[in-house]
C-alpha cells in the first residue's frame, strides 16, 4: 500500500505528541511540543484550548509533514486524542468562551456534585455511575459554569472535551466518542448516544452536547481553513477520536478480557478490559473503545507530575546539566536512586501532591514523606516517590481482583516506561509482569492505528492488535514482592491515619 499513511496526534497535560505511520504500522516521523498547565486557584486546573490544544496540533502536523517528506494527499486518515473528561464551552464558530476545565484533577465542582446528589438521590447516582459523583465527571463541571459564569453558559453552542474540540476545528463537525462521551457525560446521553432531554434540562440544553459516534467513525474531512493551518490536504478523513488513555491502551494492543493498560503520564491512568460493568465506589467503569467490551478504570493525580516536581525542586542541578547538554535529568535521578535499597531505608511517600482521585477520591489529600531521618538523601526521596506510586497502583490491582475482575496481562505505556527502575519497582510491588511494547510512543501511535481502522485500511481492532510488537517485559522478583508487603501495609494505613489532619490544613 505505497503512498498510504496515517497521522495521530495526542494532547496531554504537559506535552503533545504526534506520529505518522505507514500501512504496516512502521513509524515514519515523530514530533512533540511541550506546554504548561494553569493552576489559578487550589483545585483549579486549566488549559487555553486555542493556545495549547490547537496550537500544538497545528505545529506538530506541519512538523510531521515536513520531517516525513510525505505528500499530504498520501495521508489517508487523521485521528486525535486528548485529555479525557475536560469541559470546554465554545461558541458557534468553535471559539473557546473560557479556558478548558481539565479532567479529574480539577475539583472546583464538588459543590455541584453534592447538589446533584441531593437532586437525584444517592441510589440514582449509584445506579448511573456505580459510585458517587466526582471530579472526573463532566455534568457537575457544566453545572458549575451555569451557576458561576452564566454569561459564558448563555453563549455556549457546545460543551466539548479536548478531542472533540480538535476534531471540530479540523472538520467543523461536533463529535465525542462513545467511550469518552457516555462515561464522562453520564447520564446526559441515552445508551444509543442521543441526548436525554429530561436529564439534560437541569444542566444544559440537549443541543449543547456533541453528537456521539464510535471512536473510529469518520467525523468529517479536513476543511480548507484547517488545511491551511495544519498543512493537511483538504478532504482528508478525520475520525471521531477519543481520550488519551483509551488511545494509549489501543497502542499497546489491549483488547482481550483481563488485559490491563497502565499509563505512566503526568498522572497514572489504568483500565482493565471486562465483559460486564463493575460497581465500586472507589473506582470507575464504562464501555470500552472496542464495541461489545467494558472496563473498570482508575486514575491518580500524580506520577510524572511528582517526578517533575522532584526534578525541578530537588534535582535542579541535574535539570540544568541536562539543559546544558549533559545527561537527561530523569536518567540521572534514576541513576542516583539505583543505589537506594528496597523500601528506601524506611521512607514512605504518599504521592497525593495534587489531591487524589482513586481509590481515596479526596481532593484535599496531601503529599506526605513519612519516616524521614538525617540519613536520608534526595535519592531516597526520589526512590520513595517511585515506590509510593507503585503502592497506589497495587491498591488498585487488589480492588479489581476483589471485584471479580482478574488481571491476566499488564501492558504499560507512557513516558514513565522509559525508566527501567520504576518499571521493576512496579513489577516487584504488584507481583505482576509488566510488559512494554517495542514502540512506546503511546497515545498518538494508537490514534494513527485507529485512523487506519477508521478509513478501512485495516479490517478492525483484531488486525490492529496483531501489528503491536512486543518489547521489554519486567518480571517480578517474588522475594522482593514479599519484602514490599511490609511497606505496602504502612502505605495503606498512612492515609487513614492522617486524613483528618490533611483536611485541617486545607481548610
From TrEMBL:
GO molecular function: kinase activity
Keywords: Carbohydrate metabolism, Kinase, Transferase, Xylose metabolism
Signal peptide: none
Residue span(s) of domain Carbohydrate kinase FGGY C-terminal: 265-453
One GO BP annotation of this record: D-xylose metabolic process
Regions that span the bilayer: none
Family: Belongs to the FGGY kinase family.
Name the UniProt record assigns to this protein: FGGY-family carbohydrate kinase
Lineage start: Bacteria, Bacillati, Actinomycetota, Coriobacteriia, Coriobacteriales
